[in-house]
């Protein structure tokens, strides 16, 4: 009871960068976060990656965005305070927080470790609401965050935190379907779109032992694709090059953020191959029925990964040294970074140094 009263009375001052409407730039913003509850940890944010989902939501490209919005769901930082009942973290530890900060924890999906598909409510890290479905959540373009320890993961020691931050979304979003589909030595994996998600898909699939081909509309990324671990590179706008891709892949991870030809991608799948859509262009996908019928091909979607799987991915990436290639920026340059991402000018993830706030 005393704690409840305290929680209501004490809020933590926070500062960050927010958008106030779909057309406005990110600008300095002061807000409050809840005080540290008994199962919460407070994390001083060191770095936050910029995901293309931040842009889609800041600009309301998916619809339903709520403002003011502090984006950011690729968060790493130092634990500065822990609640009385916290067992997994202590002050000084390094924690990671991804795309969600809570779920019901009781429904069949949560019990299967698929909290991101909670049947009741997922508290997204920003542009969402807490479990009361009223209190808005705010993300990692900010100085600190307060989160239930159950929704934070442990960052293995001695890792470069700027290169770890993107794993909290780009890493888990590509690890999860590759793992589910059993990517391994002998699997032929295509990765469509070499951006933040795509470059992690290449590193992770290669680390799993798969033979990886990058499918890109940017010829200039050929050398990078090889350096990142891809065995082959094909330019999807080159008619000659794509002809040789017919029935090539067991798995294609499609990370493309804009409208593109799904029928073409399906034709590159082997019999019973699976195309996993992780990119989320605002426009609905158009698919010819015969693209699926012939070859008994499959198409699926995938959203990030559960909390336990996110920890597993972090440990895997630490062991395999599969970290993000980043360009660290100051908070004041975040609008310019958005513009550069829209032009495809990112190699391969912008990460905000939150100490520049
Ligand atoms: P990103 O870094 O901007 O990369 C997107 C890539 O898509 C680009 O690098 C580019 O690769 C390709 N692309 C862009 N415009 C294109 C066009 N007009 N035609 C063909 N290809 C184009 O974005 P990201 O952060 O990786 O995010 C990618 C998508 O995944 C976004 O839609 C994001 O919202 C979504 N996402 C989904 C989840 C999930 O849980 N499912 C999680 C995170 C993000 P090339 O130059 O190599 O062609
Ligand atoms: Zn993301
Ligand atoms: Zn649930």
CATH architectural arrangement of the largest domain? Alpha-Beta Complex
Principal-axes shape call: globular
Question: What oligomeric state do the depicted chains represent?
Answer: single chain
How many β-strand stretches? 17
Total number of distinct structural domains: 2
Order of helices and strands: HEEEHEEEHEEEHHEHEHEHEHEHEHEHE
The hetero compounds bound to this protein are: NADP nicotinamide-adenine-dinucleotide phosphate, zinc ion
Structure annotation, total helices: 12
Q: From the alpha-carbon coordinates, what is the Rg to the nearest angstrom?
A: 20 Å
Biggest sheet architecture? 7 strands, mixed
- Structural class, by secondary structure, is alpha/beta
CATH class of the largest domain: Alpha Beta
CATH fold topology of the largest domain = Quinone Oxidoreductase, Chain A, domain 1
Helix content: 25-40%
Low-confidence segments: 1-9
Assess the beta-strand content as a share of residues: 25-35%
Main features:
6-stranded parallel beta sheet; 357 residues; Rossmann fold; binds zinc ion; disordered N terminus; Quinone Oxidoreductase, Chain A, domain 1; 7-stranded mixed beta sheet; single chain; binds NADP nicotinamide-adenine-dinucleotide phosphate; globular; alpha/beta; 2 domains
């Amino acid at each position: 009871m005393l704690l409840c009263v305290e929680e209501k009375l004490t809020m933590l001052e926070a500062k960050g960068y927010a958008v106030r409407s779909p057309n406005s730039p990110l600008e300095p913003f002061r807000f409050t976060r809840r005080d540290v509850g008994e199962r919460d940890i407070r994390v001083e944010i060191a770095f936050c990656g910029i995901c293309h989902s931040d842009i889609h939501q800041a600009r309301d490209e998916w619809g339903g965005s709520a403002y003011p919005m502090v984006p950011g769901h690729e968060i790493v930082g130092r634990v500065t305070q822990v609640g009385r009942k916290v067992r997994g973290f202590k002050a000084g530890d390094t924690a990671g927080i991804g795309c969600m900060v809570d779920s019901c924890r009781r429904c069949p999906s949560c019990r299967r470790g698929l909290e991101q598909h909670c049947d009741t409510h997922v508290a997204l890290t920003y542009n969402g609401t807490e479990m009361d479905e009223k209190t808005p959540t705010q993300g990692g373009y900010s100085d600190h965050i307060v989160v239930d320890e159950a929704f934070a993961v442990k960052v293995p020691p001695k890792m470069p935190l700027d290169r770890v931050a993107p794993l909290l979304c780009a890493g888990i979003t590509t690890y999860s379907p590759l793992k589910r589909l059993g990517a391994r030595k002998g699997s032929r994996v295509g990765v469509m779109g070499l951006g933040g998600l795509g470059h992690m898909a290449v590193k992770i699939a290669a680390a799993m032992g798969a033979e990886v081909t990058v499918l890109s509309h940017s010829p200039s990324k050929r050398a990078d694709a090889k350096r990142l671990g891809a065995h082959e590179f094909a330019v999807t706008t080159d008619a000659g090059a794509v002809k040789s891709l017919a029935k090539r892949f067991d798995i294609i991870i499609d990370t493309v953020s804009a409208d593109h030809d799904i029928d073409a991608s399906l034709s590159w799948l082997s019999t019973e191959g699976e195309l996993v859509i992780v990119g989320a262009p605002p426009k609905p996908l158009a698919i010819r029925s015969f693209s699926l019928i012939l070859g008994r091909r499959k198409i699926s979607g995938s959203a990030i990964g559960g909390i336990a799987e996110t920890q597993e991915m972090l440990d895997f990436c630490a062991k395999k040294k599969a970290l993000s290639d980043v360009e660290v920026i100051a908070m004041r340059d975040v609008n310019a970074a958005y513009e550069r991402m829209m032009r495809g000018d990112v190699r391969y993830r912008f990460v905000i140094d939150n100490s520049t706030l």
